[in-house]
Amino acid sequence: MEWSRAFDAPVYLHAADREWVQRPDPSIVFWEGDTHELEPGVALLRLGGHYPGGTVLHWAAGQGGRGVLLSGDIVQVVSDRRWVSFMYSYPNLIPLPAATVTGMVDALGPYPFARLYGAWFGRVVDDAKAAVERSAARYVAALVG
């Protein structure tokens, strides 16, 4: 919260994740629902995943108007940048259920994005929407056999 106070910037957190807040602070803004527009063309999207309130940020004007997704580890960029993955627990390598992954991709359906930035330095995917859809299909197929 120190950075939030230093820059007078709120921290947006989905209300479904309220129980995980270890240091409550007035700078935390809890939001509800599946989307929250921060300003025109910039929206938080609740996808769920390893937390019920797992959130990504969509920037419609990014990548020259083709859209950008900032995914953190909700949609995880893997070593081969043509793919992403989805996990319930990264430390324990527990996968998410197929239905959850399908729901995440469905929630992203209306949002165009050509590039995806993951949680870690250098974790960038181009042709990102196709990579997410292709990866989800492969992931679900592996789970259901």
Under the CATH scheme, the architecture of the largest domain is 4-Layer Sandwich
Strand content: 25-35%
Query: In which range does the helix fraction lie?
Result: 25-40%
Alpha plus pi helix count = 4
Assign the structural class, choosing from mainly alpha, mainly beta, alpha/beta, alpha+beta, or little secondary structure.
alpha+beta
CATH superfamily of the largest domain: Ribonuclease Z/Hydroxyacylglutathione hydrolase-like
Radius of gyration, Cα only, in angstroms? 15 Å
Query: Which shape, going by the Cα principal axes?
Result: globular
Distance between the termini: 44 Å
Explain the overall architecture.
This protein is α+β, with helices and mostly antiparallel strands. 26% of the residues lie in helices and 30% in strands. The protein contains four helices and twelve strands; from the N terminus they run αβββββαβββββαββα. α3 (98-108) packs antiparallel against α4. It has two domains: 1-32, no CATH class; 33-144, 4-Layer Sandwich (Metallo-beta-lactamase, Chain A), CATH 3.60.15.10. The mean pLDDT is 96.
Give a brief rundown of this model.
This protein is of the alpha+beta class. It has helices at residues 2-6, 62-65, 98-108, 128-144, and strands at residues 11-14, 28-31, 35-39, 42-46, 55-59, 68-72, 76-77, 84-85, 87-89, 94-95, 115-118, 124-126.
